[in-house]
User: Which sequence fits this backbone?
């Protein structure tokens, strides 16, 4: 029933949740996560646990849709079970060898539960890649000029998901950052991008996916909170069709666009402009990297 | 042999020494059940099996006829091998079990076409809001016994799906180190009986049973202790504690209907065990003893707390006690938690 509701709300997900089969027990996963992981990653997995400030390196946001899309369940299970090594021991994530296979499945099901699914933004694409970019000083200056706001601490990294090709009925397939495999993805087959950001919504904040076309125009805006309350997504629909990456400018939401759209508040519009500017900066870095990969194709 | 020795050890531990159990030990860990759940579950072999060439049903005391090819003779075991007296003894043993610690499992056995299903439900009597583990052992019944496998061959490579009536559908995962076993967890939300149906995923007939939640399983369902997952006793205790903790949270969040009395018994037992069983990292460390005693003293106060206050109490204990102990003795991130919550992560490695 929940799956049907989600599919109906999103609209852009035609088949993914029509008849859901859970891979684990969400309740038990939440319970295990609370005692095994929350000290560093926070009770909801977004970071900010009690030990977060004391760790030599930040504990990752495990609810980041880009991270979840680029890690298989087997990847995540191996990391929880064996830990994540780092050059210096205190930076590493400790292993949890006492968890069994079913408990690991429960934890991962909890992490993926009620999450935006990156592949639903371009359900018919063939492939997708994802990479986090650190915005350099020039990029941060451009963002400030465009949005009128400085990039805050912890906002200098942007994960960009890029989609290629068409016609995969099973949904796009993840391609890892392997030079040989990346080389097969032609720029001319690029369909668009998705960047996940944190935006004010209702009385709090929510993770929001902004889908952009090849030229950077906004194709879809969907939030995690919107999965359970569609009304929360309506205000941001006024940005659909706006934006471009060649000559980006400050965006104005068009009120009344989209059913039930009363337009974002001034604070929401301001926040959206900053996040879109960050997204476009990340997209520019992804494009530059793609161009480098294929320089021989045109020379 | 190792499995048999472990089973014998377990039987001695829990005081089980019935003839039925001994017979099961001699046959192997998945020998037939002493009692079928229903008359339909009695496990009559498929017609083609009983009539197949080179195969003959063996009744107790009958001579085993060698196969035509002269291969080794392995008498197949069937549920109806057991005499009524053996069944009665096994039932008596099951009734004498103390399952209050939650370390018993209920076994549901059924033959569906040419397959034998053995479903393990752990704990044997799950309560609403308490996670239940379901593991199904699926075997193909062989017409001609295999010299190594016996009369059953574990079915590997399946992708079964379980339908839990009124809860959800679950993908079942292969159990590492146990060929032909698949499992999943679910958390029942209400007391009663629910239907559990498993689709094997390969087009074969499904398996289904009725499992009781918050009440004893139907008469005739086998209940027995299950083997510990861990060689380290404190890991076993911590696993149980995690289950009890999850049930407490389900009460706090209003998603479960945990039985307060059962939870109290579990928490008190686990808190006591926590003072007696020490993890390897805490060897000779008196500070671990102090922390575990503090937990033992405070855990019983959680019982009877109303849900709204319970949420805060659980969160507080997690921050003040669980994390403090785990940081030092589970994760090894530091060796000094005396000034908690002030702690220097990585001190241990730097020293």
Assistant:
């Amino acid at each position: 029933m929940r799956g049907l509701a989600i599919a109906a709300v999103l609209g852009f997900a035609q088949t993914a949740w029509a008849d859901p089969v859970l891979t684990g027990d969400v309740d038990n996963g939440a319970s295990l996560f609370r005692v095994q992981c929350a000290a560093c990653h926070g009770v909801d997995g977004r970071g900010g646990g009690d030990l977060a400030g004391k760790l030599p390196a930040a504990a990752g946001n495990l609810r980041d849709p880009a991270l979840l899309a680029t890690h298989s369940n087997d990847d995540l299970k191996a990391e929880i079970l064996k830990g994540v090594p780092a050059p210096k021991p205190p930076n590493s994530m400790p292993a949890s060898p006492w968890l069994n296979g079913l408990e690991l499945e429960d934890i991962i099901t909890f992490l993926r539960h009620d999450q935006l699914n990156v592949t639903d933004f371009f359900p018919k694409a063939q492939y997708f890649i994802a990479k986090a970019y650190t915005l350099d000083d020039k990029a941060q200056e451009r963002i400030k000029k465009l949005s009128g706001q400085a990039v805050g601490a912890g906002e200098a990294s942007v994960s960009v998901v890029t989609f290629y090709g068409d016609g995969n009925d099973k949904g796009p397939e993840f391609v890892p950052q392997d030079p040989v495999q990346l080389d097969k993805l032609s720029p001319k087959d690029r369909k668009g991008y998705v960047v996940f950001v944190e935006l004010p919504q209702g009385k709090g904040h929510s993770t929001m996916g902004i889908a952009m076309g090849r030229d950077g125009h906004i194709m879809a805006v969907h939030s995690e909170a919107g999965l359970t309350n569609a009304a929360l997504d309506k205000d941001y629909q006024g940005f659909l069709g706006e934006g471009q990456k060649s000559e980006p400018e400050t965006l104005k939401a068009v009120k009344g666009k989209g059913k039930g759209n009363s337009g974002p508040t001034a604070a929401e519009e301001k926040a959206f402009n900053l996040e879109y500017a960050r997204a476009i900066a990340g997209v520019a870095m992804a494009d530059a990297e793609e161009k480098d990969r294929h320089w021989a194709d045109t020379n | 042999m190792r499995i048999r020795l472990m089973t014998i050890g377990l039987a001695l531990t829990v005081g089980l020494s019935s003839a039925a159990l001994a017979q099961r030990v001699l046959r192997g860990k998945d020998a037939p059940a002493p009692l079928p759940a229903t008359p339909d579950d009695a496990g009559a072999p498929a017609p083609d099996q009983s009539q197949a060439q080179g195969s003959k049903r063996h009744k107790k005391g009958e001579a085993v006829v060698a196969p035509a090819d002269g291969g080794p003779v392995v008498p197949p075991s069937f549920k109806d091998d057991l005499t009524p007296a053996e069944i009665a003894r096994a039932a008596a043993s099951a009734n004498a079990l103390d399952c209050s610690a939650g370390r018993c499992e209920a076994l549901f056995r059924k033959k569906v076409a040419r397959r034998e299903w053995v479903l393990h439900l752990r704990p044997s009597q799950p309560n609403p809001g308490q996670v239940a583990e379901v593991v199904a052992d699926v075997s193909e019944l062989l017409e001609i016994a295999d010299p190594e496998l016996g009369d059953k061959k574990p079915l590997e490579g399946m992708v079964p799906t379980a339908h839990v009536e009124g809860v959800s559908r679950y993908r079942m995962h292969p159990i590492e180190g146990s060929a032909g076993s698949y499992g999943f967890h679910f958390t029942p939300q209400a007391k009663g009986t629910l239907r559990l149906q498993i689709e094997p995923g390969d087009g074969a007939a499904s398996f289904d049973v009725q499992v009781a939640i918050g009440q004893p399983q139907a008469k005739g369902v086998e209940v027995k202790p299950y083997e510990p997952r861990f060689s380290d006793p404190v890991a076993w205790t911590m696993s149980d504690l995690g289950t009890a903790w999850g049930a407490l949270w389900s009460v706090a969040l209003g998603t479960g209907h945990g039985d307060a009395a059962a939870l109290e018994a579990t928490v008190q037992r686990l808190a006591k065990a926590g003072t007696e069983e020490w993890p390897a990292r805490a060897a000779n460390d008196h500070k671990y003893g102090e922390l575990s005693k503090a937990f033992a003293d405070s855990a019983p106060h959680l019982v009877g707390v109303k849900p709204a206050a319970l949420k805060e109490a659980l969160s507080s204990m997690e921050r003040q006690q669980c994390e403090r102990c785990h940081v030092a003795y589970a994760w090894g991130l530091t060796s000094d938690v005396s000034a908690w919550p002030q702690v220097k992560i990585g001190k241990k490695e730097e020293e």
Remarks:
- Chain A has two domains: 17-112, 118-298.
